[in-house]
Amino acid sequence: MLGFLKKPVVVTAEINLNLVALTVMGLVTRLWGLSYPRAVVFDEVYYGQFVSLYMKRIFFVDDSGPPLGHMLLALGGYLGGFDGNFLWNRIGAEYNMNVPVWSLRLLPALAGALCVPLAYQILIELQFSHCAAFGAALLILLENSLITQSRFMLLESILIFFILLAVLSYLKFYNLQRHSSFSGSWWFWLLLTGVACSCAVGVKYMGLFTYMLLLATAGMHFWHMIGDQSFSNVSLMCHFLARGLALIIIPLAMYLSFFYVHLTLLYRSGPHDQIMTSAFQASLEGGLARITQGQPLEVAYGSQITLRNVLGKPMQCWLHSHTNTYPIRYENGRGSSHQQQVTCYPFKDVNNWWIVKDPGMQQLVVSNPPRPVRHGHIVQLVHGITTRYLNTHDVAAPLSPHSQEVSCYIDYNISMPAQNLWRVEIVNRESDTDVWKTILSEVRFVHVNTSAVLKASGFLGASLPEWGYRQLEVVGEKLSKGYHQSMVWNVEEHRYGKSQEQKEREVELHSPTQMDISKNLSFMAKFTELQWKILTLKNEDTEHKYSSSALDWITMDTNIAYWLHPTSGAQIHLLGNVVTWTSANVAALVYLCLSLWYLLRRRRKIYDIPEDAWQLWVSAGGISMGGWAVNYLPFFLMEKTLFLYHYLPALTFQILLIPIVLQHLSEHLCRSLLPKSMFSALIVAWFSSVYFVYCTFSPVTYGEPSLSAGELRALRWKDTWNILIRKQ
């Protein structure tokens, strides 16, 4: 039974020393002096705020993308014991001892370091030589811009890591396809492809470009499989389902999981709540939840309510009225009804309270038992403080002359009767008998007489003049003009009115509610709302000193000053290795020209290279040139402030193309010994120049040593580069 102990247990392993050496060099170049400078560097001022909010579990919305990247940065802070207490208010601010700088910058640096061996393995999986693969890794290793971007609390290095991991995983899966389908390793690399793709998209939506490229590649490969008669119909269906599971279902599930963790961590109310719906805000601890906790769920006749506009742009606002009236004539000479003003007010106020009244009864209190208001019911809305009825009529609105004025009706005993009946339409109803619910129901108020819809028109940014206290305009908009979120309202605060007398009612309107009903949203409801906000929320794009156009990136006509020492000339810039960037452009041009030449010749039945070399050339170009194109060209269609670092994922793919082109030229154009020797010597000289430029710009890559004014001027190789030189 114990016979197996008579023989020693032997474990054998193959170690690729190239990979080990590249990994070590990558770690050294990215981790060396990682805590320097101990100050806020460029966009750390932006991402650091989110890390602090994670540490304090405070909810926020970032319109730049999904939450995975922010959570990974926050993980670094958590591992370092960061409590979130730091004021991220300016670039260059010194970190106090409470901030674990090394830990916060660790994960981006590790991701950047691992991109080096990943580049090596990708070239190997593309069936290129170890020499070409080693060259690709060295180019990534010595690329100054990638080093700079990976040494700080930024997301690009993490994004590039997941992109390269996805490409490598798919290539390994595809190469295993030929001889070991459905094996353990086959499943591992296929599943890892989907996981890496979802992580890339979860860090930044730019990851979607590479994900689409890999989906297209997988689709093309599967299309070829369909034409292969060696695969049975059952086998093809199994392959299709496996790819669908790994490349679509699992990435979608993981994407949802990122938001689940994000929303689980951020359960406290914060400064970003106001752009979310009342239901979302009420689901957070503190803030609106403290006000709305325990409110009655069903709106009834006699309910006292505040109505918040669902759109929340340009700011959140509530339906509001006050004793002031519209001026008899506006500045442009148009007349008004001179009725009581109705506006959308961006602050909580007692004048935001309205009473839901049954048109057939006079009482303004809730009966016992309460009579709930349902979809389609006719109501009157009575302003709580002034007791005047919400009204609209065929009078032009003050700022929107093609829409109707909305007012609270004053009886001037003239031929202008009250028109104050409104039909409640629940937009998100499940049936036509749904009850109007606090926070949860999104409703439209349709005017019975004119079919106009109550709308906050101030979403266009227009506010009333001084006579309207700069509040936002509310109008009656014809249904024929289409649906817009500014026409939708929800009840935010709610109580059952008990006082029939006006003075008692005013006291009641100032009092908090006491009833206890919970209104928690499901995860999917919160995810849908947050995802929509991320996709549609647009911060005002302002011109930045270091913003640039996509055309500037190819030739690196721009740079970004990341940090400047307050007293010395030490500084950090996002600047690439000029030799590498130029070589990448030349390689892309050579690849396109050679591909066109080969295609034309093949069309004439002239085959300059063997078929296997042609297939290798096409597949390698599809990954590298395709990766460059999908990560670069979309920026020409984007209306946003662009920076040089947006080009780094595309640049990474373009760098991989350099050794691909060099090996191809060496094998197929330099066919005798002398040209091969000369070509090899040129490559050595070229690599030496890459290393020379890396060393030359290292002081502004790492921020040390400090350079003199003359040395800094010598680094300004282009007039468009903004190298900072202090005046003596």
From TrEMBL:
- Provide the transmembrane region boundaries: 9-32, 68-88, 100-120, 154-174, 186-219, 240-261, 578-600, 612-630, 642-662, 674-694
Sorted alphabetically, the keyword list is: Endoplasmic reticulum, Glycosyltransferase, Membrane, Repeat, Transferase, Transmembrane, Transmembrane helix
- What topology does it adopt in the membrane? Multi-pass membrane protein
| Primary localization class, coarse | endoplasmic reticulum
Q: Where in the cell is it found?
A: Endoplasmic reticulum membrane
Top-rank taxon, per record: Eukaryota
GO MF, one annotated term: dolichyl-phosphate-mannose-protein mannosyltransferase activity
Question: What's its EC?
Answer: 2.4.1.109
Q: Which GO terms describe its cellular component?
A: endoplasmic reticulum membrane
Task: Give the first-level EC class, as a single word.
Answer: transferase
State the PANTHER family in the record: DOLICHYL-PHOSPHATE-MANNOSE--PROTEIN MANNOSYLTRANSFERASE, PROTEIN O-MANNOSYL-TRANSFERASE 1
Q: What protein family is recorded?
A: Belongs to the glycosyltransferase 39 family.
Record's protein name = Protein O-mannosyl-transferase 1
Gene label: Pomt1
